[in-house]
Specification:
alpha/beta; 280 residues; single chain; seven-stranded parallel beta sheet
Length: 280
C-alpha cells in the first residue's frame, strides 16, 4: 500500500482533512491539496499527532485553474511515478435564489463545484487507467434533491452527479472505478465558509424573506445534529478499499433516507412536500 498514491482536493478543513488523515493512516502516499496552503497547519499538526506526517505531501491547487490542475497532476506523477486514486472534495456552498443571485454568482458556484471536478478528473484519468485506479467525488444529497435557496449549489451538484454517473460505465471498461459520495449535513466549516449575514440576507430577500427566515432556522437545526467530518470521511475511505465500489454511496442513514425520497418520487410530489415544509 505504501507505493500507492492518492491526490485529494480541498483538504484544509472538514471532510477533506479527515480523508487525507485516513488515507495516510491506511498507508497511502497522500497528496493533500488546497487553494490556500497557509491554512495547512491544522492538517500538518493532525498528521504529526497521528504519526503519518511523512506520508502527507501538502500542495497548493486551485481547482478552477485548468493549467494549475494539469501541472499539479504532472508534478505528482514526476514525484511518485503513479496515481492510484483521486478524491474530488473541493467545493463551495452558496445560499441565494434566482432573483437575488447574479449570473456571475451562479457561474462562480459552477466553476468550483462542477468544472473543478472536471478539470481534476480529466487530468487524472490517463494515470488512473494505468493503475486501474479510483475516481471518487464528494458530491452531496443536494446533488439528488433540489433544495430552496440552494439553486446554484444544487445545480452544480446535479451536474456532477449526471456527468460522473454517465462516465462511470465508460471508465469501467478501462479499469477505472467512478464513485459519487453523498453526505448530508456535516459539522464542518463548509457552512461557516458560506459567510451569510442572515439578517441582511432576509432583508434583501424581499418577498422571499419569510421563507428564507424559516429555511435558515430549519438548516440551523439540521446542522446542530450533523454527522462528523470523520464519519463522512470513513465512507470515502471504504470506497478506496472496496473491491467493487458502487457508483453512488451515502455517508449516513439520514442521507440515505433523504436521497431515497427522491429516487422513489416519480412525479416530484414527495420532494415538493418535504422541501416546501422547510419554508413555513
Amino acid at each position: 500500500m505504501s507505493e500507492q498514491t492518492v491526490l485529494i482536493t480541498g483538504t484544509s478543513t472538514g471532510i477533506g482533512l479527515e480523508i487525507a488523515l485516513g488515507c495516510a493512516r491506511a498507508g497511502w502516499r497522500t497528496v493533500a491539496t488546497m487553494r490556500d496552503v497557509t491554512r495547512a497547519d491544522r492538517l500538518r499538526d493532525a498528521a504529526e499527532a497521528a504519526g503519518v506526517a511523512d506520508l502527507i505531501d501538502v500542495r497548493r491547487l486551485d481547482v478552477t485553474d485548468p493549467d494549475a490542475v494539469t501541472g499539479c497532476v504532472e508534478d505528482v506523477i514526476g514525484a511518485y511515478g503513479r496515481l492510484d486514486a483521486v478524491i474530488n472534495n473541493a467545493g463551495a456552498g452558496h445560499v441565494g435564489t434566482l432573483e437575488q443571485d447574479s449570473v456571475d454568482d451562479v457561474r462562480a458556484v459552477m466553476e468550483v463545484n462542477f468544472f473543478g471536478v472536471l478539470h481534476v478528473s480529466r487530468a487524472a484519468l490517463p494515470h488512473l487507467r494505468a493503475s486501474r485506479g479510483r475516481l471518487v467525488t464528494v458530491s452531496s444529497v443536494g446533488g439528488i434533491v433540489g433544495q430552496p435557496f440552494n439553486e446554484a449549489y444544487c445545480a452544480a451538484k446535479f451536474a456532477v452527479e449526471g456527468y460522473l454517473e454517465s462516465l462511470a460505465p465508460l471508465a469501467a471498461t478501462t479499469g477505472v472505478r467512478v464513485t459519487l459520495v453523498e453526505p448530508g449535513a456535516v459539522a464542518s466549516e463548509f457552512v461557516t465558509n458560506i459567510a451569510i449575514d442572515a439578517d441582511a440576507a432576509i432583508d434583501a430577500a424581499g418577498v422571499y424573506g419569510p421563507a428564507l427566515r424559516a429555511y435558515l432556522a430549519r438548516t440551523g437545526q439540521a446542522f446542530a445534529a450533523a454527522q462528523s467530518p470523520a464519519d463522512a470521511a470513513a465512507a470515502v475511505l471504504a470506497v478506496l478499499s472496496d473491491p467493487a465500489p458502487p457508483v453512488r454511496v451515502q455517508t449516513s442513514d439520514g442521507a440515505r433516507q433523504f436521497v431515497g425520497v427522491k429516487l422513489a418520487d416519480l412525479d416530484g410530489a414527495a420532494v415538493a412536500r418535504m422541501t416546501g415544509g422547510w419554508l413555513v
